[in-house]
Amino acid sequence: MRPFTYSLAADAPEAVRQATVPADAHVRAPVQLMGGGTTLLDLMKLDVMRPDAVIDITPLATARYGNIEASATELRLGALVRMSDAAEDHAVVTDYPVIAQSLGLAASQQLRNMARLGGNALQRTRCSYFRDPSYEQCNKRNPGSGCAAIDGFNRLHAVLGTSEHCIASYPGDFAQALIALDATVEVLGAGGARSIRFADLHRLPGSTPHIETSLAPGEMITAYVVPAGPWTRRSAYIKVRDRESYAFALASVAVALDMDGTMVRSARIALGGVATVPWRAAEAEALLAGKPLDEAAAHKAADAAFADAKTHEHNAYKVPLGKATLVRALLTTQAMEL
User: Fold this and answer.
1) Is-contact 92 249, C-beta < 8 A?
2) Whether residue 28 has pLDDT greater than 80
3) What gap in Å lies between CA 262 and CA 260, rounded to an integer?
4) How buried is residue 54: exposed, middle or buried, by Cβ count under 10 Å (0-12/13-18/19+)?
5) Which phi-psi region, left, alpha or beta, contains residue 171 (left: φ > 0; alpha: ψ -120 to 50)?
6) Helix axes 318-334, 295-305, angle to 10 degrees
7) How far apart are alpha carbons 309 and 251 in whole angstroms?
C-alpha cells in the first residue's frame, strides 16, 4: 500500500471542503472520504486506488447521518448507518423487507458490521481485470487503454447496459432495492446540499466507464430517502450466487408489488449481477401493470427484461438464469402473507 495521510472528520462541511479537489471523477480523486472502508482499503492494498489523503467520516455517525427514521410517508436511512443495523431494524424488516433482505444477503456478517450504507451503494466492480493492475487494458482503471474482459474470461460480467468500452457488472445488492423503490439520495458538497434520484446516481459506462456516478468530486452521500407506498411491504430480494455465503450475485432481483387480489396495480423491478449499473426493468414492469400475475405473465415479463441483453463468450448463461430469477422473485413476492 502506498503512503497516505489519515484524518478524522470533525464536521461534514469541512470534510467535503477538504475532499473537493480537481479531478475528473470522485472515484479517482486524490482525497477520499471513508466510511467503513471495506472497499476503499481493499482497492488501496491492490494498488487500484491511490489517494494521497483519506478522511474518515465515521465520527459524523453521531449526528443525523447515523440514524434510521421511519414515518408514515417515508424511510430515511443515514449514510453512516451500518449495513447490519439497517438489515435488522424492525421498521425496515417489517415495512421494507426488500431492503432488509438485500442487506442481509450482502457480503459477510463481519463486513456488514463494518460497512456503511453510503459507501455500499458506491462500491466498485469486482471485475478481475479492474482489480489487477498487472492488466494494462481497463478503461475503468486506465481510461483509453481498452477492455481486457471483452475477449477475456467474462463469466461474471454484465449482459445489460454494456458498451464496447466496458462490460464490468455492478456488484451491489442494496442498490437494487433502492432503485426499485424510487429512492432519492441526499448529498452534501462544497456548493451545499442537494437531492437526486437514486436512478440518476450511477452512470452507464458508455465511452467513459471511469466516471461511475453523477457525484462531483468531494460530494458525500448523507442519506437515502425511500417513499412509503402500498408496494413496500409486499417486496422481496432474491439472489443467486455460486455459494450461499459471502459471494456476489450471478443474478439478483428486487421486486415490490402493489396488488389487488391477483391483479397487479403496479410493479417495481430491479436486476442485479447482470448489468453494469443497478438496473430498473421498466419494460417488464409495464407488461405486468393492470394484469393478473401468474407464471405465464411472469415469464413474459422476464423475456422483456432481457430482450436487449448482449452476451459474450462465457456469460450467456446469465440470460436464462436472470429470467428464472425474475420469475421466482415475482411469484415469491406475490405469495407473501402480509
Assistant:
1) no
2) no
3) 6
4) buried
5) alpha
6) 140
7) 13
pTM of the model: 0.96
Q: Which amino acid is at 245?
A: S
Q: How far apart are CA 245 and CA 268, in angstroms?
A: 26
Whether 293 shows a pLDDT value over 90: the answer reads yes
φ, ψ at 292 (rounded to 5°): -65, 145
Rounded CA separation 215/170 (Å) = 17
Please check whether residue 80 is in contact with residue 86, taking contact to mean a CB–CB distance below 8 angstroms.
no
Q: Name the nearest CA neighbour of 129 among 218, 46, 28, 225.
A: 46
Give per-residue pLDDT as tens, 48-91.
Answer: 999 999 999 999 998 789 999 999 999 999 999 999 999 999 99
Give the three cell numbers for residue 96.
Answer: 421494507
48 CB-contact burial (10 Å; exposed 0-12 / middle 13-18 / buried 19+): middle
Residue 46 near residue 244 (C-beta atoms within 8 A):
no
HEC string of the chain? CCCCEEEECCCHHHHHHHHCCCCCCHHHCCEEEECCCCCHHHHHHCCCCCCCEEEECHHHHHCHHHCEEECCCEEEEECCCEHHHHHHCHHHHHHCHHHHHHHHCCCCHHHHHHCEHHHHCCCCCCCHHHHCCCCCCECCCCCCCCECCCCCCCCCCCCECCECCECCCCCCCHHHHHHHCCCEEEEEECCEEEEEEHHHCECCCCCCCCCCECCCCCCEEEEEEEECCCCCCCEEEEEECCCCCCCCCCEEEEEEEEEECCEEEEEEEEEECCECCCEECHHHHHHHCCCECCHHHHHHHHHHHCCCCCCCCCCCCHHHHHHHHHHHHHHHHHCCCC
**What does each C-alpha distance from 104 to 80, 120, 148, 164, 323 come to in angstroms?**
17, 13, 33, 34, 23
Q: Which three cell numbers stand for residue 261?
A: 387480489
Paired strand residues for 251: 240
- Cβ atoms of 190 and 20 closer than 8 Å: yes
